[in-house]
Write a structure and sequence with these properties.
Elements (H helix, E strand, L loop, with lengths): L1 H8 L8 E12 L9 H15 L10 E2 L9 E2 L3 E2 L1 H4 L6 H12 L4 H17 L12 H18 L13 H11 L6 H4 L16 E10 L6 H4 L6 H19 L1 H7 L8 E7 H34 L2 H25 L12 H23 L11 H28 L7 H36 L23 H10 L10 H14 L2 H22 L17 H11 L11 E6 L31 H16 L9 E2 L2 E2 L1 E3 H11 L5 H6 L12 H11 L13 H4 L4 E3 L4 E9 L11 H21 L9 E4 L3 H34 L2 H16 L1
Antiparallel strand pairs: 1-5, 1-6, 2-3, 4-5, 7-12, 7-13, 8-9, 10-12, 11-12
Helix pairs in contact: 4-7, 5-6, 12-13, 12-14, 13-14, 13-16, 14-15, 14-16, 15-16, 15-27, 26-27, 27-28
């Protein structure tokens, strides 16, 4: 079982060795000199960092780096920030200027010479000459070697432990600008400078930094001491709560102070942190909740204005709000639908509008009944309500049914979220209609008997002896008597009715004016249709918050103002051999949101010597092909490619992975006898999966480091994968459909190429996928467009059919449907 194997193979973590959370600072300059142009702006950024780093208890929560420390306890991991180079432990002005002068001379000749030879130099240092062509000039190799040593000596002192020297600020910026030109050193500086930073323009308007927090914490309390040591999830949750308490109690107030525009004249500071995101979102949700309450209150007051009764307005709002829980009971309890879409929350606004409309229709019909010419209508309250029921019931039933059908058109969408919203909205509208025809109708009867004639209806705590007597004579009796006495009652008309009766009707009664209106609307319809045909998936990253919200600003800056840095975490894309199409039998996310199908493993997959060789060749091609730089992230001038076959071959040849220099030198593959035969694979894997990976910064075991690429179940290899890190996409944000589509198409092209190059090898070709569902979301955006068009067209046809059946007048149904279509297009 893979879960058991992972637990067995998981190394025992030292104190604060693993990542628990991050604090992300993003800075924006307000001056032409940029963030690193003046000592004041640099000190302001450093102050943000020192808020944490100079706290007495920082070392109890920081992520500890055990790699460089000679003691058992380690030291806090140096933050990822370009401030490190401005606060070095030492700064050799002469050596830095020497490097700048060399690279500046005959620019870009010496930069190109360095980039062309550095891989060979680094390979020689590891006794590996595979990156050397044999045509390199010995003097060039010597020059590049000396330059590399000097740069290493300079950057090794960047630890944020020194003092700022204002006299070296300009030299530091220029040195960093030249490092950005060197393939193997670009990753040291590119994280904290924006896209505009260069040799010609050594000014960065934006910068960023990350502080690391670690776990497991060396802190115990009553709750943590009661948690079993093997319950990692519960312990991690508790550690997160402890860290949150520490940050909120000690830093949050000052962090918010730093982010205020008035705090600094030179920089704007923004931050986000995983444990604080909930606080920010809670604040946003609270504000949205207040807006929702305001909407409900506004609707209530407007209903009160129209129906002229606090009692009816109160009952009306109660029945509107009751529609939601009753619909939810039907949705989740009766129909057993478990998928809850965030769109469902919008139903509170839909039912408020539609419910109020139904109330207006019902109360308007009730008031009209008092002026009806047929005496039978006013014969009694029963006959009067019967007439109101017939007049409004059918009309509201038709409109409610049409609305329900329109929402149910979302069932055409393959997206469970759309379906969930459509079903829930339809149920809400149905329940609201039932409540209007029952609860509100009953309230109107009570209103007729108790409140319409302003009869004193005593409170239950009043001393009145006669409580809540019926009106005598009743409003219906009074209206009937006026009709019998030939005293024709005149219905009061509100301003809206008067406007439409006198102004609008007078306008459309003229044939010429109707023709002008028709031409204008026709022209508008054509314009709207042309623009509607241009409907396409979004071309910009989705914006969930207001553009001026600090969190939204920080996200926008991160997405638009920085290059893809080597230290950025990008999307992992897998090319997997041994996996077939997922078995989708029984998949229905409405009822089982978590069930997306069962994996199917190919019976034709064979992980023999030829397959292993071909996979290693594919890894090297993906890693060293410069044409793939726009699609596969470059780290140290080579592609970021993860290939477990590489370490498997080294383990088979060397017997262990303890000598990582030997593993990375790849000399073990020169004899071409490193492959593992299928008969020896099981025995080999037993020791291999417990080895520490040479490519893991956290000393993870092979099974942990290659958890998603190595399909070992304890007895057989179900699938094997090569992982590449995408250059553009990341697991945290969502790029626009065209951007994601370009990357997706290239990944599919690579999968096809691997299938062609490895034809007949491994038994099957690779399948390309990502586990963060970014390519699925890309496809979802296209589905949104298609579903919108399909549902809209079907909705208009349903409306036309309903209107034709209810009015039995073709041209009215036609023009009403055209009006609906015009609204949709507009």
């Amino acid at each position: 079982d893979r879960d058991v194997l992972k637990k067995q193979g998981k190394k025992e973590s030292r104190i604060q060795e693993n990542d628990l959370d991050y604090t992300y600072w993003i800075w924006e300059s307000e001056t032409e000199e940029g963030l690193f142009g003046t000592k004041n702006s640099i000190k302001a950024m450093k102050e943000n960092m020192d808020l944490f780093m100079k706290d007495d208890n920082y070392d109890k929560y920081c992520r500890i780096d055990y790699r460089k420390s000679s003691n058992t306890f380690g030291e806090c991991l140096t933050p990822l920030s370009n401030l490190n180079m401005f606060y070095p432990s030492s700064w050799n002005v002469t050596k830095v200027q020497t490097v700048i002068d060399i690279l500046e001379t005959d620019y870009p000749k010496n930069v190109e010479l360095y980039n062309n030879n550095v891989q060979c130099v680094l390979g020689i240092a590891q006794n590996n000459t595979q990156f050397c062509t044999g045509e390199e000039d010995d003097k060039d190799i010597e020059r590049v070697t000396l330059l590399t040593n000097d740069i290493y000596a300079i950057t090794e002192e960047w630890d944020l432990s020194g003092e700022l020297n204002p006299d070296t600020i300009g030299q530091t910026n220029l040195f960093a600008a030249y490092l950005k030109e060197l393939n193997t050193w670009r990753g040291v500086v590119d994280f904290g400078f924006d896209t505009g930073f260069s040799i010609e323009n050594p000014v960065s308007k934006y910068s960023r930094a990350i502080l690391f927090w670690g776990s497991p914490l060396n802190i115990t309390d009553d709750e943590t001491s009661s948690i079993e040591n093997d319950d990692e999830e519960e312990l991690e949750t508790k550690y997160t709560e402890l860290l949150k308490t520490y940050v909120v109690d000690n830093f949050l107030e000052k962090m918010n102070k730093y982010t205020k525009m008035s705090y600094s004249d030179e920089i704007n500071s923004y931050y986000f942190m995983g444990i604080l995101i909930f606080e920010v979102l809670l604040e946003i949700v609270t504000m949205d909740g207040m807006l929702a309450i305001f909407s409900i209150v506004f609707v209530f007051l407007y209903v009160r204005l129209q129906v002229r009764s606090w009692f009816l307005a109160l009952v009306g709002m109660i029945e509107i709000l009751l529609s939601l829980p009753v619909a939810w009971f039907l949705f989740a309890g009766v129909f057993q639908i478990e998928f809850f879409s965030f769109l469902n929350t919008l139903c509170i606004f839909l039912v408020a509008a539609i419910g109020a409309d139904d109330i207006f229709i019902f109360i308007d019909a009730y008031r009209q009944s008092a002026y009806h010419q047929d005496p039978a209508v006013l014969e009694s309250l029963e006959s009067r309500m019967s007439w109101v029921y017939r007049r409004t019931g059918t009309a509201m039933a038709i409109t409610s049914a049409t609305t329900c059908c329109a929402f149910l058109c979302t069932l055409l969408s393959p997206l469970a979220g759309n379906k969930s919203f459509g079903i829930f909205a339809a149920l809400v509208i149905l329940v609201d209609y039932i409540f209007v025809m029952t609860l509100f109708c009953t309230a109107v009867v009570i209103y007729h008997n108790k409140f319409e004639k302003d009869v004193c209806c005593c409170d239950i705590f009043s001393s009145c002896k006669s409580r809540c007597k019926n009106s005598n004579p009743s409003p219906t009796t009074i209206a009937s008597e006026k009709m019998t006495a030939n005293d024709e009652p005149v219905q009061d008309r509100d301003r809206v009715s008067t406007f439409f009766r006198e102004k609008v009707f007078g306008l459309i009664k003229s044939p010429m004016k109707r023709a002008i209106i028709g031409v204008l609307l026709g022209a508008w319809l054509i314009i709207s249709l042309v623009n509607a045909m241009k409907l396409e998936p979004t071309k910009e990253t989705e914006q969930f918050l207001d553009k001026d919200h600090p969190l939204q600003k920080s996200v926008k800056i991160l997405e638009n103002e920085f290059p893809i840095a080597e230290d950025d975490i990008n999307l992992q894309v897998y090319f997997s051999w041994g996996l077939d199409e997922v078995d989708r039998k029984g998949v229905n996310q409405l009822f089982k949101p978590e069930f997306v199908g069962e994996p199917v493993f190919s019976k034709d997959f064979k992980f023999d010597q030829n397959c292993q060789t071909a996979m290693l060749v594919a890894c090297e091609e993906l890693r060293n092909n410069d044409d793939l730089a726009p699609y596969i992230k470059r780290v140290g001038a080579v592609g970021s490619v993860s290939c477990f076959v590489e370490e498997l071959g080294a383990y088979a040849k060397l017997g262990s992975l303890s000598d990582c220099d030997a593993v990375k030198s790849r000399e073990w593959k020169d004899d071409n006898d490193w492959q593992v035969s299928p008969s020896d694979l099981t025995k080999m894997m037993e020791g291999f999966i417990d080895q520490k990976s040479c490519f893991s910064d956290n000393e993870d075991t092979i099974l942990t480091y290659y958890a998603d690429a190595l399909g070992w179940d304890g007895s057989s290899l179900k699938y094997a994968a090569i992982t590449v890190e995408n250059q553009v996409l990341d697991p945290f944000g969502t790029k626009s459909e065209p951007v994601a589509r370009k990357q997706y198409d290239k990944m599919i092209e690579l999968a096809d190429k691997l299938t062609t190059d490895m034809v007949g090898v491994c038994g099957v070709g690779p399948r390309m996928t990502d586990l963060d569902q970014k390519f699925i979301f890309m496809n979802t955006q296209s589905i949104y467009v298609r579903s919108a068009v399909q549902s809209s067209v079907l909705g208009v046809f349903i409306a036309f059919a309903v209107l034709l059946m209810s009015t039995r007048v073709f041209h009215i149904a036609l023009f009403a449907s055209l009006s609906i279509m015009s609204v949709l297009l507009s």
